[in-house]
Amino acid sequence: MSSDKVKTEPSCADASDPLSLTVEQARAAIRRKLIQIDDTQQVPIRSARGRFLAEDVVSPFDVPSHTNSAMDGYALKGTALPKLGSAQYRVIATALAGQTVEQVCGADECVRIMTGAPMPPGADTVVMQEQVESVGDQRIRIDARHRPGQNVRMAGEDIAAGSRVFTRGRKLSAADLGVLASLGFAELRVVRRPRVAFFSTGDELRSIGEVLGEGEIFDSNRYSLDAMLRESGVEILDLGVVRDDPIALQQAFETASRTADLVITSGGVSVGEADYTKQILSQAGEMDFWMLAMKPGRPLTFGRLDQALFFGLPGNPVAVMLTFQQFVRPALQMLAGGNWPVPLVVKACAKTALKKRPGRFEFVRGILSYDPQGQLVVGPSGAQGSGILTSMSRANCYILLDEACGGVEPGEQVSVEPFSTDL
Ligand code: AMP
Ligand code: MG
Question: Which of 11, 123, 150, 283 makes the best surface tag, with the fewest CB within 10 Å?
Fold first, then answer.
């Protein structure tokens, strides 16, 4: 393209025009516009996985609630342990988990104790069963290698009564739910799930099950979007395919923004003749149209439609997935009460050369694996055209080539964002 061509809008073909936003700038702009949902609901703990806490959780009691034994063995007074040689003790009782022992442990006495049983009065130390010698009926011998206070779990050592266990906005994991169950919570107050409405735009699109006419293609974006939305744990409203027709689009925008916290469209955000999204959004709401200094995923429309946040994703199937992952998914997490997530990025050795010119951020679909020496290595998962979805489906990571990068030589260390922690 000749550099003296008069431009009225940034062009997709222009690698590093000054009007392009960097990936970081786009993230910051989205965060600025985002208003978190403040509706909350009470849910049973079994349904709370992946939800966001709407309030801090304070522990109603100590965990463990009583000082107890960490081992099967014998409980005794730490001061009565032999300093040298060994000493004998009379077994005065047995302490089982879930029961309390009344007898007070004297200096030459001990209590047979099971893991989790409350410590008997007078005892503060447990000697493991395997380190005790039985010497006749109800008598044991212990040698001098023990430390007062050993093998005992103190009341409140995990969680002290009155302490804050989780803060508002916490995304609840399986371990979190275990902790909350140990505190006796049957229900939790969480933020209502975001409602997301989405539709595809394009006269060439047919839904699966329909017959393809000349020049028509199946709509794949709605299916990849649906799957990614399900993973995000949001409520989904699928509005189907909308024609490249301003009236039909306007109606779809209205329906979507009436019902949803966030609206996603795909297609129609370039500068082509049938690209109406920007026009309608700027009339009906607030629009920011961006050319992003990234590849794939260059044009992105972002804004508000009444109360709903709006993302007009590009049409190309790979760009849809990438822009969803990089911008929409984090926005949904924040909308739902959480933080903007920071993805895991690891270093790996490039298996092949990667061509690139400085100026924009490139997300190369890659395959990350271990080589026979146990080193992380990575290479492209196939052709990188933004319509080539099979290389996305083969990929398990993005190779991150930032704005400054001017290409990669084989053997160089590159930054990689894995799609999951399983390889
Ligand atoms: P557009 O931004 O509308 O010009 O679309 C860019 C490219 O993505 C075109 O080749 C479209 O046919 C294709 N495309 C748009 N929407 C979809 C969709 N929902 N599923 C598959 N391909 C699409
Ligand atoms: Mg289109």
Answer: 283
